[in-house]
């Protein structure tokens, strides 16, 4: 059973719809006991870093997610959910993230002349072979974001090019993040979610 | 790099797609979820659903429609037509829409743009602008109520204003070109992309493959929207993308 962490963010229900469509057992929950009993977790997220951390904190979920990660539970953060996995965010001032992965969240530079947010379909370049990342090799997925994660090269499985190289899939042990929205990236996105379930959650 | 998007637009009335769609052999051509799935298979990058329902009582049907589409089709969905409140936006986003397009309501209550952007983020708020060239004033003029009513607004400055209010994308239709199949209004999109720094979706006038290649060669728009050429199978999305790719335009 995958639990999609429900903390009143935008794409929670679309993630549930994608998992339902794939026939993957799942439920939405913000209950700590349910989250700690799950086989795997998905942390969605749309919006701003600080507000999202505050929403998790309000529900007592920051320590719950940290405990789940320490227990080795597979966790997939999506979009802002991926950004929350790292140590520090700099959207509207510095804020602490969940700290499940080293790294920080910084603005996409506007100096490149490119429009921010980075919105639309962009191609993934896989840097490290991985059963989940391999699904996305050379494939375009749907991105909507104004900030991006900077982390150690060893944690970057895939990247996309938007003037700067933006890590699109990151991983450290049982914790994984996708900057794009697999639930809005057509068949390839669905395949990626199915692969996460098969390789990390059911494994 | 970011791909240019090709977006079919579906007119929905009381939960049914209104215009004929005959590029696939569907027994039920009016079902939005079936048509959306067929477009997904063709490689559409996004779908726009325009609610053309005339009565307020029937508007709830759009929420059900989006709910059904979003359970089967996993790509960005934009919904527009008659949305006048943050509550209406929220209901559609909850049902599975990714973006809300405001048109007439953006003119009558511009504060709605800001309220929507503040609550859901700018990336959620698209302002749709219908424009017509005014020969006398020598400028583009904004029209509302499905293009039936002129306003005093000049289109380029209106575009700047809605972006300042929080619009994250503009869907701009040239009424002069709409339905003419004489190509997109390149001058309009050149002026718009020079004036604002949010993604712009061009709409109105496409009839052949060269219209798409010309649009992306001559302007800096991010996406092209089309209805009838796709619905009636005159062009397919793979045809459009192949021709764009041959011209060096990045598409998915």
TrEMBL record, chain A:
<comment type="function">
    <text>IGPS catalyzes the conversion of PRFAR and glutamine to IGP, AICAR and glutamate. The HisH subunit catalyzes the hydrolysis of glutamine to glutamate and ammonia as part of the synthesis of IGP and AICAR. The resulting ammonia molecule is channeled to the active site of HisF.</text>
</comment>
<dbReference type="InterPro" id="IPR010139">
    <property type="entry name" value="Imidazole-glycPsynth_HisH"/>
</dbReference>
<comment type="pathway">
    <text>Amino-acid biosynthesis; L-histidine biosynthesis; L-histidine from 5-phospho-alpha-D-ribose 1-diphosphate: step 5/9.</text>
</comment>
<keyword id="KW-0378">Hydrolase</keyword>
<comment type="subunit">
    <text>Heterodimer of HisH and HisF.</text>
</comment>
<keyword id="KW-0315">Glutamine amidotransferase</keyword>
<feature type="active site">
    <location>
        <position position="183"/>
    </location>
</feature>
<protein>
    <recommendedName>
        <fullName>Imidazole glycerol phosphate synthase subunit HisH</fullName>
        <ecNumber>4.3.2.10</ecNumber>
        <ecNumber>3.5.1.2</ecNumber>
    </recommendedName>
</protein>
<dbReference type="InterPro" id="IPR017926">
    <property type="entry name" value="GATASE"/>
</dbReference>
<feature type="domain" description="Glutamine amidotransferase">
    <location>
        <begin position="3"/>
        <end position="188"/>
    </location>
</feature>
<keyword id="KW-0368">Histidine biosynthesis</keyword>
<dbReference type="InterPro" id="IPR029062">
    <property type="entry name" value="Class_I_gatase-like"/>
</dbReference>
<dbReference type="GO" id="GO:0016829">
    <property type="term" value="F:lyase activity"/>
</dbReference>
<dbReference type="Pfam" id="PF00117">
    <property type="entry name" value="GATase"/>
</dbReference>
<feature type="active site" description="Nucleophile">
    <location>
        <position position="79"/>
    </location>
</feature>
<feature type="active site">
    <location>
        <position position="181"/>
    </location>
</feature>
<keyword id="KW-0963">Cytoplasm</keyword>
<keyword id="KW-0456">Lyase</keyword>
<keyword id="KW-0028">Amino-acid biosynthesis</keyword>
From TrEMBL, chain B:
<comment type="pathway">
    <text>Amino-acid biosynthesis; L-histidine biosynthesis; L-histidine from 5-phospho-alpha-D-ribose 1-diphosphate: step 5/9.</text>
</comment>
<feature type="active site">
    <location>
        <position position="11"/>
    </location>
</feature>
<dbReference type="Pfam" id="PF00977">
    <property type="entry name" value="His_biosynth"/>
</dbReference>
<protein>
    <recommendedName>
        <fullName>Imidazole glycerol phosphate synthase subunit HisF</fullName>
        <ecNumber>4.3.2.10</ecNumber>
    </recommendedName>
</protein>
<dbReference type="InterPro" id="IPR006062">
    <property type="entry name" value="His_biosynth"/>
</dbReference>
<keyword id="KW-0456">Lyase</keyword>
<dbReference type="InterPro" id="IPR050064">
    <property type="entry name" value="IGPS_HisA/HisF"/>
</dbReference>
<dbReference type="GO" id="GO:0016829">
    <property type="term" value="F:lyase activity"/>
</dbReference>
<feature type="active site">
    <location>
        <position position="130"/>
    </location>
</feature>
<dbReference type="InterPro" id="IPR013785">
    <property type="entry name" value="Aldolase_TIM"/>
</dbReference>
<keyword id="KW-0963">Cytoplasm</keyword>
<comment type="similarity">
    <text>Belongs to the HisA/HisF family.</text>
</comment>
<dbReference type="InterPro" id="IPR011060">
    <property type="entry name" value="RibuloseP-bd_barrel"/>
</dbReference>
<comment type="function">
    <text>IGPS catalyzes the conversion of PRFAR and glutamine to IGP, AICAR and glutamate. The HisF subunit catalyzes the cyclization activity that produces IGP and AICAR from PRFAR using the ammonia provided by the HisH subunit.</text>
</comment>
<comment type="subunit">
    <text>Heterodimer of HisH and HisF.</text>
</comment>
<dbReference type="InterPro" id="IPR004651">
    <property type="entry name" value="HisF"/>
</dbReference>
<keyword id="KW-0368">Histidine biosynthesis</keyword>
<keyword id="KW-0028">Amino-acid biosynthesis</keyword>
């Amino acid at each position: 059973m995958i639990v999609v962490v429900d903390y009143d963010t935008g794409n929670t229900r679309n993630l549930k719809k994608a998992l339902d469509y794939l026939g993957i057992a799942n439920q939405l929950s913000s209950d700590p006991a349910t989250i700690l009993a799950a086989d795997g977790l998905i942390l969605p997220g749309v919006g701003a870093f600080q507000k999202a951390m505050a929403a998790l904190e309000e529900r007592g979920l920051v320590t719950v997610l940290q405990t789940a990660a320490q227990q080795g539970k597979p966790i997939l953060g999506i979009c802002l959910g991926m950004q929350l996995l790292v140590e520090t965010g700099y959207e509207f001032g510095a804020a602490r993230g969940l700290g499940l992965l080293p790294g920080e969240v910084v603005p996409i530079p506007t100096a490149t002349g490119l429009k921010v947010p980075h919105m639309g379909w962009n191609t993934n370049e896989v840097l490290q072979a991985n059963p989940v990342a391999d699904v996305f090799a050379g494939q375009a997925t749907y991105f909507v974001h104004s900030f991006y994660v900077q982390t150690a090269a060893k944690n970057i499985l895939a990247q996309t090019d938007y003037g700067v190289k933006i890590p699109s899939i990151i991983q450290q042990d049982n914790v994984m993040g996708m900057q794009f929205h697999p639930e809005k990236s057509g068949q390839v996105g669905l395949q990626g979610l199915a692969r996460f379930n098969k390789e990390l959650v059911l494994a | 790099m970011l791909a240019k998007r090709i977006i079919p637009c579906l007119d929905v009335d009381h939960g049914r797609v209104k215009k004929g769609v005959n590029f696939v052999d569907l027994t039920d051509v009016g079902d939005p979820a079936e048509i959306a799935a067929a477009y997904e298979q063709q490689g559409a990058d996004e779908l726009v659903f325009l609610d053309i329902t005339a009565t307020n009582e029937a508007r709830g049907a759009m929420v059900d429609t989006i709910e059904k589409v979003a359970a089967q089709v996993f790509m960005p969905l934009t919904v527009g037509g008659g949305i006048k409140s943050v509550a209406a936006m929220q209901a559609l986003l909850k049902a599975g829409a990714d973006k809300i397009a405001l048109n007439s309501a953006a003119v009558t209550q511009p504060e709605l743009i800001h309220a929507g952007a503040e609550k859901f983020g700018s990336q959620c708020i698209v302002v749709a602008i219908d424009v017509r060239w005014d020969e006398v004033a020598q400028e583009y003029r904004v029209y509302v109520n499905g293009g039936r009513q002129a306003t005093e607004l000049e289109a380029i400055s209106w575009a700047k204003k809605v972006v300042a209010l929080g619009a994250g994308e503009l869907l701009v239709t040239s009424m002069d070109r709409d339905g003419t199949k004489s190509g997109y209004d390149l001058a309009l999109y050149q002026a718009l992309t020079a004036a604002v720094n949010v993604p712009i979706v061009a709409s109105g006038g496409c009839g052949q493959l060269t219209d798409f290649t010309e649009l992306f060669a001559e302007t800096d728009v991010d996406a092209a929207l089309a209805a009838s050429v796709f619905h009636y199978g005159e062009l397919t999305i793979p045809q459009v993308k192949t021709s764009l790719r041959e011209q060096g335009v990045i598409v998915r």
